[in-house]
């Protein structure tokens, strides 16, 4: 049985299960408040079937993942596959040499990021990281295929995303290329959304944006929402939530080493907000300095941090871009 059979209702039991599981997922996202800022996104999640974008995925711990496939001859496996496709959880969709290279993000987190993107009718949107194509489909449902571009470095990922999108009835532009370079021929963009973690903001994105454009991207272990002022300037703060994504591939700059935390008190080592500060400032602030700052500033929440891009300089900061706490980021 194919995933299309479920979608087209040729397997009534699984078709009904997919419909009820999707309805439950919508209730979970609604309860999370993820799209409170833009409830129109509910219509997109209701209309776009997630299972078409995950014909298989890997369930379980990293050391013992089981591949769940919608075409399995075992009806119990097919049922697990459908139920899993509509859980509010990230799904590992592509492994290479034991490492995760692509996934379908947690739906409630996707909903929150899309709501924070603050799209309006007629906006031209670039997605960095095609993944399964599910996020591009949600965008295309809201804005139309012609206004959505998604890019990924891996041709296997972009090809499978095209297939999934076509199965769901959507045909946005899918580009194989380095997301750090953007897609200049499809600009200028009103919005950019990334589904991969950055260590700095690619300057190419700013040059491809209209003034006033908004960028929502994972950064460190959080989400940053930046406003583009012009081709050389952007600024914004972090959102309240944590976020863990695979790194942007194609950027040749080496990733700074994660600081050793062994000598720090357990309350800091185990605190998610302290780990965020360490990740954001690694390479410029040693763990003891970070700990002293963290305690002095009463364990600051993510919304107190921000990022500024100005010409060839880029820095993260606490409270104010020109305040006493600022840390350079790789340009």
UniProtKB/TrEMBL annotation:
SUPFAM superfamilies: S-adenosyl-L-methionine-dependent methyltransferases (SSF53335). GO terms for biological process: methylation. It comes from the Bacteria. Keywords: Cytoplasm, Methyltransferase, S-adenosyl-L-methionine, Transferase. Pfam families: PCMT. GO terms for molecular function: protein-L-isoaspartate (D-aspartate) O-methyltransferase activity. The keyword Cell division does not apply. This is Protein-L-isoaspartate O-methyltransferase. The keyword Transferase applies. GO terms for cellular component: cytoplasm. It is an enzyme of class 2 (transferase). Belongs to the methyltransferase superfamily. L-isoaspartyl/D-aspartyl protein methyltransferase family. It comes from Streptomyces sp. SID12501. Its main location: cytoplasm. Its EC number is 2.1.1.77. It is found in: Cytoplasm.
């Amino acid at each position: 049985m194919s995933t299309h059979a479920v979608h087209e209702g040729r397997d009534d039991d699984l078709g009904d299960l997919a419909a009820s599981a999707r309805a439950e997922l919508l209730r979970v996202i609604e309860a999370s408040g993820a799209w409170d800022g833009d409830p129109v996104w509910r219509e997109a999640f209701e209309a776009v079937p997630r299972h078409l974008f995950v014909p298989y995925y890997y369930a379980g711990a990293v050391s013992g993942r089981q591949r769940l496939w919608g075409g399995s001859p075992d009806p119990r496996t097919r049922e697990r596959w459908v139920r899993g496709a509509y859980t509010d959880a990230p799904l590992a969709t592509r492994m290479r040499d034991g490492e995760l290279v692509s996934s379908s993000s947690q739906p409630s987190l996707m909903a929150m990021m899309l709501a924070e993107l603050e799209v309006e009718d007629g906006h031209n949107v670039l997605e960095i990281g095609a993944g399964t194509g599910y996020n591009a489909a949600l965008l295309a449902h809201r804005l139309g295929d012609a206004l959505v571009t998604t890019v990924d470095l891996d041709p296997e990922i972009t090809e499978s995303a095209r297939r999934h999108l076509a199965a769901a009835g959507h045909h946005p532009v899918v580009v194989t290329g380095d997301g750090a370079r953007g897609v200049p021929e499809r600009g200028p963009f009103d919005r950019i959304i990334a589904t991969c973690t950055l260590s700095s903001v690619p300057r190419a994105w700013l040059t491809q944006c209209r003034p006033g454009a908004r960028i929502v991207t994972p950064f460190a272990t959080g989400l940053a929402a930046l406003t583009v002022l012009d081709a050389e300037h952007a600024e914004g703060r972090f959102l309240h939530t944590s976020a863990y994504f695979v790194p942007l591939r194609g950027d040749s700059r080496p990733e700074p080493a994660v600081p050793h935390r062994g000598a720090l008190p357990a309350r800091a080592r185990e605190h998610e907000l302290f780990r965020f500060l360490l990740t954001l400032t690694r390479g410029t602030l040693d763990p003891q300095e970070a700990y002293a700052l963290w305690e002095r500033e009463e364990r600051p929440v993510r919304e107190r941090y921000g990022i500024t891009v100005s010409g060839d300089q880029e820095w993260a900061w606490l409270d104010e871009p020109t305040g006493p706490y600022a840390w350079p980021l790789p340009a």
